[in-house]
Amino acid sequence: MLILSLFVCCHLATANTWHVGKGKGLRSVNAAILAAANGDTILVYAGTYYEKNIIVNKKLLLKGIGHPVLDGEKKYEVISVKANGSVIDGFTIVHSGVSSMEDMGGIKIYDSRDVVIQNNILEDTFFGIYVQYGKNCTVQNNQLVSYNPEEQQSGNGIHCWKSDSLRIIGNKITGHRDGIYFEFVTNSIIWLNTSFKNIRYGLHFMFSHNDAYIANHFRDNGAGVAVMFSHGVKMYSNVFEENWGDAAYGLLLKEISDSYIDGNTFIKNTSGIYMEGASRIHMQKNLFKNNGWGMKIQASCMDIEVTLNNFIGNTFDVSTNGSLVLNSFNRNYWDKYDGYDLNKDKIGDVPYRPVSMYSMIVEKNPPAMLLFRSFITSLLDKTEKVIPSLTPEALKDNSPLMKRLF
Amino acid sequence: MKKIIKYVMTDILRNRIVMIYTIFLLVTSFSVFSLEDNDSKGLLSLLNIILLIVPLVSIVFSTIYVYNSAEFIELLVSQPLKRKSIWLSLFAGLAGSLSIAFFVGVGIPILLYQANAIGGMMIGVGVLLSIIFVAIAMLAAVLTRDKAKGIGVAILLWLYFSILFDGLVLFLLFQFADYPLEKAMIGITAFNPIDLSRIMILLHMDVSAMMGYTGAIFKEFFGTAIGMVISFGVLLFWVLLPVWVATRKFNSKDL
Amino acid sequence: MIIASNVSKQFSRLKALDNVSVTCNKGECIALIGPNGSGKTTLIKSILGMVVPDSGFITFNGNNILHSWQYRNKIGYMPQIGRYPENMTIGDVLDMMMDIRGGENELDEDLIHSFGLDLLKRKRMRTLSGGTRQKVSASLAFLFDPEVLILDEPTAGLDPVASEILKEKIISEKEKGKLILITSHVLSELDDLVTQIIYMQDGKLLFHKSIEALRSDTGEEKLAKAIASVMINF
User: Fold this and answer.
1) For the ranges B41-45, B211-215, C137-141, the one whose mean pLDDT is highest
2) A107, CA 20 to 30 Å: which among A251, B11, B19, C119?
3) Bridge partners of A328?
4) What angle (nearest 5°) sits at the alpha carbon of residue A204, between those of residues A149 and A129?
């Protein structure tokens, strides 16, 4: 133990600490980087720095004291990390350059591993934190705010591309195009982030396999969350709420397979979940509340298992566009269920059909939405309940629960 | 003319049916607002009541009232009064008292729970619907001499506006599914004041997002000030046209 | 005062008035009689403008009544059946009528008092008996002291006392030189009132004679018998 602590001590002794700030010897971060060696620490004190592009090409710990401001003057990428194991901690990064040719970030990691980006505030950046060919990097406790109202003028908050084993934890992202963007990212975790009021998606996820996202909060994003062309995705305990708009979804699933959706909450979305070409998905213990559509399952989906979920106060619980049903619903709670339970096993004795006649009509003929909330539609639904003819026969919950689950 | 309106209105407001109607509206409005966990949802549930109950009560009550007043109308006609002013007074009395009933029954709860633009619009639309169906009732009553037949016609008209018309729209939508009907549908809704009212209100609520592309097209029209003015104008037209035709008919009617 | 010239009216299949011409003058008290469906009420309604004739015209003081309404200021009308909005009180009905046409003429509240209606002013119309409603109708007809009184079956439904009061009133108004038109099918009632008789049947005016002429023609004192004998001659 003693030997170990001695070793650490000696190691620290060999590393230098550089101080940057007014009256601190060094006036610029770039000068400090130039002077520093691998493993050194650079402490940057409060103030505003116009450094153009800062390139971290050595393994450094860059630490802001009192959130110094690094200003990109709307022309430059503020920090480019190109060395393994670097740490960027505690900066305020503002006004990165906007370019349609290259994806300029507030902080961009190039082809590096074990980099940590933490406790930074990014304001008015094009892309916020950009990870390109990163491995085992951590992005945590950053706050990202962008103000650009135009989708084309705005980049993504945390943008990850062709990376592996990332940890995206506890960040707050708002006002970007997509809050968090994953493309070709594997074995990573997205945990405890809050992504709200982004122009397009709160989380945008493509060709990224075997990732997990857990306990994140996605609220009021232009189009909700999109998870596409991936397999082995685990979505646990996230909240999707108030993604309300013409083409907004709590969660959009497209070509997803072998995935798990457990314990999530979907509240006040136009559609809680929209699924297209999804297969072998297990959905358990989710809450669908006050959505326009709880779930839209297109006919191209198969082997979706929906068990033990709560459906409460949705205008339409489930809708589908085909008559062939290869998905199963079991032991869910539906607040619209009006069956009975004679043997008192807490499971309704007659099956529940979550697809209403009118939702089928609308799927076939969208302009029929014109009759939304008219008397005739409730009349049709009531008739259909008595004599089902149009709704798919097999789409039913054979053992609907009498009481809500949680 | 003002004098007759005053007496007709006090007569109707003391009517037991109108009192029950007012209390019914009051009780449902308050229970809807206190049962729903959020008030805008309450407003949505209330919309269904407004679109169904208000036209029904307005049209049936007014028709019966006009028939029951046949002798009274004769007496008035034998007085030095213009027929036009008798008829219009009767209309104003009916429309006024049923509007008051609606305002007390639904308007006050809305003002208490949802005193905003959409709540105000709902009150406005409800009052207009009351008046429209009084106008239609009076037309039905002046055109049919027989009381039973007249009430039958009134109920049929209500059925037509609240269900059959929508069935027809649905049928059209499926018959012409291959054509872009969205814009034409804006015009078609003008032919049914209930549909027009429903769409006007829905498009100003959150749920409009559920109406998809059709909703977007409609919003382009109803969302603008001009669109609103036009649609309120159409509702007003639905008052004026039946009243005008009915007054003309009454002017030359043998009593 | 009132002249009808060649008035005809057709109700779908029924010919209610068939080329009827009649002249009524001040100071006359005319009984309009005939069986049910003979066109009496239609004639009255035509005079009041409730029914518009298909052909012919009616003048009041020399003016065609078509499309005019002011002349009704000079008419008091008592309908056969008086029904009023259920929830109005007697007071409301009287007030409303005074609102409508009060002001110009002196109010004649004799009947209201003698029928005792001023004690019932707070009663709702729906709670009243048929007889009381008739009393209201009669009071309204006389209330504005009009030059012409048109009474449709005035004594039907009235109790004998009220009936007598009404007759007295009619006589006193006649003596003031007013024109009074009464329809009735109970002939005996009219004996001591009328000066002229108009007899109608199937929409046609069969005769219009003064009571003296009728009596001398038939040699009968009693009105009913006089008419019966005329009928036999037809």
Assistant:
1) C137-141
2) A251
3) A305
4) 70
Torsion of CA A376, A378, A379, A383, to 10 degrees: 140
Strands A271-276 and A234-236: unpaired
Name the residue among B255, B87, B75, B79 with its Cα closest to residue C72: B79
C165 pLDDT more than 60 = yes
What confidence score (pLDDT) does residue C104 get?
63
Cα–Cα distance for residue pair C181/C194, rounded to 1 Å: 9
Which structure tokens are listed for B190? 């003008």
Each residue's pLDDT tens digit, A156-168: 999 999 999 999 9
For domain C2-233, give the fold. Rossmann fold (3.40.50)
Dump strand ranges (E) for B4-100: none
Q: Which amino acid is at C227?
A: I
Higher per-residue confidence, B126 vs C234 = B126
Please report residues of A whose CB lies closer than 8 A to that of B198: 373-374
| pLDDT, mean of residues A245-262 | 92
Q: In this structure, are residues A15 and A87 in contact, taking their beta carbons and an 8 Å threshold?
A: no
The mean predicted confidence, pLDDT, of chain B is 90
Q: Has this prediction a pTM greater than 0.90?
A: no
Burial class of C44 by CB neighbour count within 10 A (0 to 12, 13 to 18, 19+): buried
Mark B58-93 as b/e (b = at least 16 C-beta within 10 Å). Answer: bbbbbbbbbbebebbbbbbbbbbbebebbbbbbbbb
Q: How far apart are CA B17 and CA B129, in angstroms?
A: 18
Interface residue B4 vs chain C (CB under 8 A): yes
Tell me if C173 sits within 8 A of C143, measured CB to CB.
Answer: no
Q: What secondary structure letter does DSSP report for B163?
A: I
Q: Residue B191, SS3?
A: coil
Is the CB of C50 less than 8 angstroms away from the CB of B77? Answer: yes
Give the model confidence (pLDDT) of A266-288 as tens digits. Answer: 999 999 999 999 999 999 999 99
Q: Strand pairing partners for A41?
A: A17, A61
Cα A281–Cα A286–Cα A289 angle in degrees, nearest 5? 125
Chain A nearest-CA distance from B142, in A, is 29
Residue from B208, B214, B219, B220 to probe the interface with A (highest A Cβ count within 10 Å) = B214
Which of A341, A328, A349 shows the shortest CA–CA distance to A394? A328
Is B7 at the interface with chain C, CB within 8 A? yes
Judge whether C211 and C195 are in contact, CB under 8 Å: yes
Q: Could you tell me which residues are beta bridge partners of residue A56?
A: A81
Tokens (6 digits) for A229: 């062309």
Whether the CA torsion A387, A391, A392, A394 is positive or negative: it is negative
- Percentage, residues of chain A above pLDDT 90: 67
Sketch the domain layout of chain C as residue ranges. 2-233
- Chains in contact with chain C (at least 3 beta-carbon pairs closer than 8 A): B
Whether A299 contacts A273, CB under 8 Å: no
Query: One-letter amino acid identity for A60?
Result: L
CA angle B206, B207, B210 (to 5 degrees): 130
Nearest to C214 by CA among B59, C204, C233: C233
* Residue C209 phi, psi (nearest 5): -135, 155
Q: Show the domains of chain A with their CATH numbers.
A: 13-222 (2.160.20.10)
CB pair distance less than 8 Å for B215 and A371: no
Q: What is the pLDDT of residue B163?
A: 92
Model confidence pLDDT, tens digit, residues A166-190 = 999 999 999 999 999 999 999 999 9
